Amino acid sequence: MKRKGTHKPTIEDAIEIGGIEILHQGGYHLTKHTAEITNMRANLHVLDVSSGCGTQSVFYAENYGVHVTGLDISPEMIHSAETRTQQKNLTDKVKFVLGDSQQLPFADNTFDIVINKCTVGIPDDSQKVLDEMLRVVKKGGAIAIHESTWRTKLTDERKDEISVRYGTTPLELQEWINMLTIAGAKNIQYEFDQWSKPEMFWNTRLNRKVKHYKKVMTLKEKTITAYRIFKQYGLKGVIKVFENEKKFFQCVLAGELGYALFKAEK
């Protein structure tokens, strides 16, 4: 599912470049719900695939007493996550590993629970990401993914445009189910409508409620992000990011794109 780089920097690029702490769609409500449906409890071993700045990993360790291994492909994200863990005095519960979600550096049947939030669709080979998640989870263990999912039938051209602007590849609901099945998942369950409300896409900040997509970042945060994008991509890159944001949220508000939460077992 390799995307053409015709609209770079994408929204995902901008989030990473900005370094601003933004939660996954659904915020902590989704994070907590994911822990509940996977029966997360003390002393289980959890793999948080594409763990980003470690917010979710720390939350699981703090609130459920699990041991968490976070994996991310970005050294900057690993550094940020390790700093957060040290500040929370959770280094005995949480650790982070640099690695690729398409080739997890762990043995078969290692973890009780494997989770991936919103990043299965970012790498070129989403099927390989799911294959690897099922490989490293123990037999009888749980996996959960939260992924961008088309809500309506769209043309291939429309799908490609939004995917390239977003920086990840959404799929139709049945496509995600088929891929999970191919990976070896059983007892697949999903929740779709409740996680597809437009506000789920922008109420994603840690300490404040966001009521409109234009308010996800403060003016100061936007300025910092724009400056960092300018340094890397120039003025055209800054203009492109704002264009991508507008086009993406038009898609969300039109009901074309949502998010689905999938839980399955090995």
Structural commentary:
With about 270 residues, this protein is α/β, with parallel strands linked by helices. The protein has nine helices and seven strands. It has helices spanning about 10-20, 25-35, 55-65, 75-85, 125-135, 155-165, 175-185, 200, 220-255; strands spanning about 45-50, 65-70, 95-100, 110-115, 135-150, 185-190, 255-265. It has a seven-stranded mixed β-sheet, sandwiched between helices. Strand 1, helix 3 and strand 2 (about 65-70) form a beta-alpha-beta unit. Helix 1 packs antiparallel against helix 9 (about 220-255), helix 2 packs across helix 3 and helix 5 (about 125-135) crosses helix 7 (about 175-185). It is globular, with a radius of gyration of 18 Å. The model has no long low-confidence stretch (mean pLDDT about 95).
Q: Average pLDDT, to the nearest integer? A: 93
Tell me the total number of β-strands: 7
Q: What is the structural class?
A: alpha/beta
Silhouette? globular
Residue stretches low in confidence (pLDDT < 50, at least 5 long) are: none
Q: How do the helices and strands follow one another from N- to C-terminus? A: HHEHEHEEHEHHEHHE
- Largest sheet geometry: 7 strands, mixed
Give the end-to-end Cα distance, rounded to a whole number of Å.
25 Å
Helix content: 40-55%
Strand order of the largest sheet: 3-2-1-4-5-7-6
How much of the sequence is in beta strands?
15-25%
Structural Rg: 18 Å
